[in-house]
């Protein structure tokens, strides 16, 4: 799926629909991890990462209140933010 150069870099920004999606290569499981906040922001056309984060938090809360469970365990990973610093997302 991705080239060797991208895997070696570990944290890569992937374009999607003109928006940036932060990714990280999980060497142990040999798979890409994506920032759910970036994906939600892109799919819902949120103007800022803060809006996307709030949207995701509210959506998760509503789903849990309605009795739904997330199909996957969304772990927080350290990913680079727009200001160049690394935060848990």
Short description:
This protein is 35% helix and 27% strand. By secondary structure, it is of the alpha+beta class.
Question: Can you put this structure into words, describing what you see?
Answer:
- The protein has 89 residues and is of the alpha+beta class.
- The protein has helices spanning 4-9, 36-43, 49-65, and strands at residues 11-16, 19-26, 31-34, 78-80, 86-88.
- The protein has 3 helices and 5 strands; from the N terminus they run αβββααββ.
- It is globular, with a radius of gyration of 14 Å.
- The protein starts with a helix and ends with a strand.
Layout of helices and strands:
Layout (H helix, E strand, L loop, with lengths): L3 H6 L1 E6 L2 E8 L4 E4 L1 H8 L5 H17 L12 E3 L5 E3 L1
Antiparallel strand pairs: 1-2, 2-3, 4-5
Helix pairs in contact: 2-3
């Amino acid at each position: 799926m991705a080239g060797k150069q991208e895997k070696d870099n570990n944290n890569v920004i992937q374009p999607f629909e003109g928006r940036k999606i932060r990714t990280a290569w999980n060497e142990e499981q040999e798979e890409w991890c994506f920032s759910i906040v970036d994906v939600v922001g892109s799919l819902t056309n949120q103007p800022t990462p803060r809006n996307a984060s709030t949207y995701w938090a509210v959506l998760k809360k509503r789903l849990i209140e309605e009795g739904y469970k997330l199909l996957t365990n969304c772990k927080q990973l350290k990913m680079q933010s727009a200001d160049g610093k690394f935060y848990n997302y």
